[in-house]
Amino acid sequence: MTERAIVPTHSAFLELKEERSGMREGYRFLDEKRLILAAEILAELGRYEREMTAFRSDYREAADALQGAVARHGLEGLAVYPPTPPLETVWQLNPRRVLGVTLLDLVETKPRAPSPAVAFGLATSPDAEACREAFETLIPRVARLAAMVANLQRLRADYARTARRARALEDVLLPEIDETLRAVESALEELEREEVVRARQVRA
């Protein structure tokens, strides 16, 4: 919208004021949405950091368990140890929405299957079983971390879109319509002065 495209009339002036009011309301909504999304991003980051801290701790324990198993069996002996079958864990993605953004929380709903050495009554090694269990513990943590990263990506993308729209209103559209309003108001005042002068000339 430019002032050249507006015919300076009272109705046009009122329409512009109404449009500016709508834009300001839209900006307030976008600004509030930005704050809510930022708060949700910080909360999700907090959950991610806690899960990552637990993952790093479990990973160190798994690495130590692997060293113990290798020290006892050697790499070749550990390579022929009964492998862990695919986990029978059932995962459920629980959706929740934050201002139109769908976030998915990963929840484990079925316990994991026992390791094959236990299931089939094979001779077990405490070191190898400790290594197996330590690495099995990492799997659900990695899955939850992946879900949290996906949530953060969705939140970041929506926050960026919201911020762009808010900046467009704040830096471009609102200043432009304010400038047009001032120009139309000034033109109307000039027209009113001309009308007053003509009225005086007619009376004279």
Brief digest:
Helices cover 75% and strands 8% of the residues. The protein has 204 residues and is mostly helical.
What does this structure look like?
- With 204 residues, the protein is mostly helical.
- The protein contains 3 helices and 2 strands.
- It has a two-stranded antiparallel sheet with strand order 1-2.
- Envelope shape: rod-shaped
First-residue to last-residue Cα separation = 42 Å
Strand content: 5-15%
Order of helices and strands: HEEHH
Q: Tell how many strands the DSSP assignment holds.
A: 2
Could you give a short account of the major beta sheet?
2 strands, antiparallel
Number of helices: 3
Helical percentage: over 70%
How are the strands of the largest sheet arranged? Answer: 1-2
Radius of gyration: 33 Å
Low-confidence sequence ranges: 118-122
Q: Which secondary-structure class do the elements indicate?
A: mainly alpha
Give average pLDDT, whole number.
Answer: 85
Write the layout of secondary structure elements.
Elements: H1 10-79, E1 91-98, E2 101-108, H2 116-119, H3 126-203
Antiparallel strand pairs: 1-2
Helix pairs in contact: 1-3
Annotation keywords:
mainly alpha, 2 strands, 8% strand, 204 residues
